[in-house]
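Quarterly update from the structural biology core.
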Amino acid sequence: MSDQDFARQMAGWSLTTAEITYHMPDYRHLLQSFIWQDYDLAPRFPRLVKFLDFWTQNLDGPLATVRVAHAGILRPVQLRHVKGEWALH
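Predicted structure, tokenized:
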């Protein structure tokens, strides 16, 4: 984490993640997802809104849905012991 990110958190910014589902430009019946993540101010999310405005004005894939999640200001990290590990493949 950079000093700028820490300063933003102290000013009320929080880590925001958006899952953007959009229609493929050439195949409108197909959906694809894109993950956007940055520090933003809840609940208005000005950076996310700016990004979505850019998307709608400059990209060909029309938006289908946008799901937003954000973490609150600095909080303690919870650690727990894991007794095992599963590996796939």
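The chain is about 25% helix and 30% strand.
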